[in-house]
Design goal:
InterPro entries: RNaseH_sf. The chain is mainly alpha-helical. It contains 6 helices and 2 strands; from the N terminus they run E-H-H-E-H-H-H-H. The chain has 2 domains: 38 residues, no CATH class; 71 residues, no CATH class. A two-stranded parallel sheet has the order 1-2. The longest helix is centred in the middle third of the chain and has 14 residues. The protein starts with 7 loop residues before the first strand and ends in a 7-residue tail after the last helix.
Length: 110
């Protein structure tokens, strides 16, 4: 499904943890962390929640959107504009976040 060594991970939303979705991911993605592997309710350990969503929200909201299609197009463009450096920064923070969560005994770190 991808052209590189990517790991696919979702959050704990019910739509992502359903057996149907989990089975599809296991069958169709080269590398996938199932719901049993990922800590529940842990946005601090998700590079997307930790950094990328803020960048995408900032870039997407530079102008108002009057339609869902306009918003979708802006999100797609913002994702396409992400640089390798931005993605590397988000992923590079992962170890720091894991260590901070451990120090806090599993508590929220933000």
């Amino acid at each position: 499904m991808t052209d590189g060594p990517y790991l696919y991970q979702q959050d704990g939303a019910p739509a992502h943890t359903s057996n149907l979705v989990q089975n599809w991911c296991l069958e169709n993605l080269d590398m996938f962390w199932s719901k049993e592997f990922w800590p529940p309710s842990s946005p601090d350990l998700n590079p997307c929640d930790n950094y990328l969503l803020g960048v995408l929200e900032r870039d997407t909201n530079k102008r108002a959107h009057n339609t869902v299609d306009s918003l979708k197009a802006a999100i797609i463009q913002a994702v396409a504009n992400l640089s390798r450096e931005q993605v590397a920064h988000a992923v590079g923070r992962f170890r720091h976040c894991v260590e901070a969560v451990i120090v806090k005994g599993g508590s929220w770190i933000e």
